[in-house]
Structure formats: C-alpha cells, structure tokens
C-alpha cells in the first residue's frame, strides 16, 4: 500500500471509473490533506513522443519528495499524474508530501531512485552539509517569495517596514530573503520587531503581525477570499533577484540512471504545458488536489505563476548560474553555512538541454 500523503500512478481501469465524463468524478473526488492518501491518474492515448519510453521493461518506481504539502508549484507533476505522462515515460511516480521543513533533501539523500524539489537555499544548505545531491533543473526560475501587508498599514516600500511587526522564522527561506532584502536596501533590522510562529494569513488579518512573508498567488488568494485589502512587496522590485526552487536528485541516481531523471523532467514539462491549456478536465484534477473549488481562481493562479516558471528570455526548467551564485553568497553572508559547496559539482545543466534537444516543441520552451 502507498504511504499516506502520496499520489501515485493507478491502474487504468480504476482511473477511468473515477473520472467519468458524466461528472461522477466530481461527486466522488477525494478530499486531499497532508495525512491522507492522495490518488489520481488517467492513462490516455497519446501520439508518439520522442521521449516516450519502451514498455518492454517494467516501469521504474520513483519517489518525488516535497518539502511540505502539495502546493500550486506542483501543478506540472499533478497534471502529469492525471494525464498519464509519467506512465508514458515508463515511470511509476508517487508524490510524497513533507511534514517538516528540510525533509525533502534528507529523504532524497537516503532513498534510491528519488527526486526532490526544494527552495534553492535549502538545497544549497544540504549540499554544504555534505549531502551528495545535484540540482538538474529549475522548478521556479524566479523566487515566489513576497511580503504581504494590510493596506491600512501603508507599507509601499522597504522604508515603510520601520516599527512594523514581521512574521520571522529563523533559517526559513522567507526569513533568508527578508534579511537579504533589508541588507540590499541598507535597512537596519533594529527598526523592526520579529515574531516567530505567526506566518499565517489569519495572523495578518488579526493584526498580530504587519508583514507576512508568503508566495505569489497563494496568500493573496486567501486574503482576497477573506475580503482583506492588501499590498505586497516584491523583492525583485527592490533589487533582489533570486531563483526560487530546484529539482534535484542523488549524484548516484544521475550517474547510473540518467534516463529516469530526463524522463521525469520531460513529463513535468509536458504536464505544465497541458495545465496551461486550462482544459476543464485538468482544472478539475487541480481543483481536487489543491482544494480550490473556483476554476477562475485556478486560471488566475496559473497566470500569476507563469512569470516565475519562465521569465522572459528563458526556457522552463533552465538553471541560472548567476542567481544560484547570488543565493550561495547570501548564505555565506548570513553565516548559515560553514562549508561553501562548489556550484560546478552541485549543478547539472545537461539534463534540461538534452530534454529540449529531444523534444523542442514544448510551448513553454517557445
């Protein structure tokens, strides 16, 4: 039996029964939660693709570890499960949600045939700690971290942070970005009061905090639902340009089974491409997984995510060495790592190049 908190490929027959055209699927859909078993997959007939794998061998079982519960950042993988793209690539993928921060790197380091996704800071910290992990693609080319404030707080710039209360959990990526943003703009932390354990929308609305670190498209959706007017401070607008998250695996997996990594990335890219077609079938699956009932809200969320996935002048999943160097420098400056890893040994640029070379027609690539 799959462990709780996972999504994995399902037999085609059961998938079809659960996702009938007459709307039965919507009535029966599973309510997803961290502690619940999450299932969905559709095996569909697809035209031959250059990255489709041979069915003469058994599918390779791959664990995809997250650093928390399923979020909109996993829409590409969720759609690949739903559409059967992983199965087409001869992979049996199950998504394992994290229950504590930093879990994804530790799990991938100790699990054969595992792939993970984590914020770039968490990945670099794990690498600095000696874990033999290697990043092979960008999951979010631009950092999604922004800072929300109630509109009546009148926070429009970094200077307006003075005398405000910020939700701050030391070592968390949001706090690393917050400290880097202040340093980049020459603003003293002594002018701000930090409180731990208050990184919630409710804490902002209830005025326990004035500044809420969050992610583009996520907290904003909840604030809109609750009727709370807000402003947001985007570090990009104040000179801090960072990568978001990366896909990574163990060095041995990439060395001995590189096709698993390439096929996984191919399927995820294809999943994102399909999601951006915004078909009803895919919106239903995304709605069930993310517990967002409003399809228009999902469409808006996808629109807000696109600049993070593929900024102008880049292809989806391409790693940016300059931004990775910036992230590493920030960790050094904030004294969050003792041993500085060599980026040349921690990053592989070839996987993404090979996937696009094999199948260059992906809309996100063009």
Protein architecture, described:
With 366 residues, this protein is of the alpha/beta class. It has 2 domains: 6-143 and 243-365, Periplasmic binding protein-like II (D-Maltodextrin-Binding Protein, domain 2, 3-Layer(aba) Sandwich), CATH 3.40.190; 145-238, Periplasmic binding protein-like II (D-Maltodextrin-Binding Protein, domain 2). It is built from 16 helices and 11 strands. It has helices spanning 12-18, 24-28, 75-83, 85-88, 103-110, 120-128, 173-184, 201-205, 219-225, 251-256, 258-275, 280-290, 295-309, 321-333, 343-346, 350-358, and strands at residues 6-8, 60-65, 91-96, 114-119, 133-140, 145-150, 165-167, 193-195, 211-215, 230-233, 245-250. Strand 7 (165-167), helix 7 and strand 8 form a beta-alpha-beta unit. Helix 3 crosses helix 11, helix 3 crosses helix 12 (280-290) and helix 6 (120-128) crosses helix 14 (321-333). It is globular, with a radius of gyration of 20 Å. The two termini are 40 Å apart.
Cα-based radius of gyration, to the nearest Å: 20 Å
By DSSP, the count of extended strands is: 11
Order of helices and strands: EHHEHHEHEHEEEHEHEHEEHHHHHHH
The residue ranges in which pLDDT falls below 50 over 5 or more consecutive positions are 10-50
Strand order of the largest sheet: 1-3-2-4-11-5
Helical residue percent band: 25-40%
Mean pLDDT figure: 85
Estimate the strand proportion. Answer: 15-25%
What is the straight-line distance between the termini? 40 Å
CATH-level-4 superfamily name of the largest domain: Periplasmic binding protein-like II
Might you state the CATH topology name of the largest domain? D-Maltodextrin-Binding Protein, domain 2
Q: What's the level 1 CATH class of the largest domain?
A: Alpha Beta
CATH architecture of the largest domain: 3-Layer(aba) Sandwich
Number of helices: 16
Q: Based on helices, strands and strand pairing, what is the structural class?
A: alpha/beta
Q: Please tell me the total number of domains.
A: 2
Largest pleated sheet = 6 strands, mixed
């Amino acid at each position: 039996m799959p462990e709780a908190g996972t999504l994995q490929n399902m037999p085609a027959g059961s998938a079809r029964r659960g996702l009938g055209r007459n709307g039965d699927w919507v009535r029966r859909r599973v309510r997803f939660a961290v502690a619940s078993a999450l299932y969905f997959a559709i095996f569909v007939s697809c035209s031959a693709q250059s990255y489709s794998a041979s069915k003469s061998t058994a599918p390779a079982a791959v664990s995809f570890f997250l650093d928390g519960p399923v979020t909109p950042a996993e829409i590409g993988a969720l759609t690949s499960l739903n559409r059967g793209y992983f199965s087409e690539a001869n992979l049996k993928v199950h998504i394992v949600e994290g229950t504590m921060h930093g879990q994804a790197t530790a799990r991938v380091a100790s699990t054969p045939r595992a792939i993970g996704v984590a914020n770039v800071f968490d990945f670099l910290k794990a690498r600095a700690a000696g874990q033999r992990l290697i990043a092979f693609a960008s999951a979010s080319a631009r950092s999604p971290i922004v800072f929300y404030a109630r509109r009546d707080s009148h926070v429009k710039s970094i200077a307006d942070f003075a005398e405000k209360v910020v939700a701050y959990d030391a070592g968390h990526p949001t706090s690393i970005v917050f400290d880097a943003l202040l340093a980049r703009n020459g603003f003293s932390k002594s002018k701000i009061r930090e409180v731990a354990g208050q990184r919630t929308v409710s804490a902002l609305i209830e005025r326990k905090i004035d500044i809420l670190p969050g992610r583009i498209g996520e907290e904003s959706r909840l604030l809109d639902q609750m009727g709370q007017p807000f402003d947001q401070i985007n570090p990009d607008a104040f000179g801090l340009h960072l990568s978001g998250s990366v896909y990574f695996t163990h060095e041995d997996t990439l060395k001995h089974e590189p096709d698993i990594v390439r096929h996984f990335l191919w399927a995820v890219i294809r999943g994102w491409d399909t999601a951006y077609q915004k078909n009803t079938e895919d919106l239903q699956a995304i709605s069930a997984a993310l517990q967002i009932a409003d399809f228009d809200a999902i469409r808006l969320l996808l629109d807000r995510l696109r600049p993070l996935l593929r900024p102008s002048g880049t292809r989806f999943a391409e790693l940016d060495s300059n931004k990775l160097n910036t992230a590493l420098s920030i960790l050094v400056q904030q004294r969050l790592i003792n041993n500085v890893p060599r980026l040349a040994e921690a990053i592989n640029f070839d996987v993404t190049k090979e996937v696009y070379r094999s199948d260059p027609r992906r809309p996100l690539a063009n």
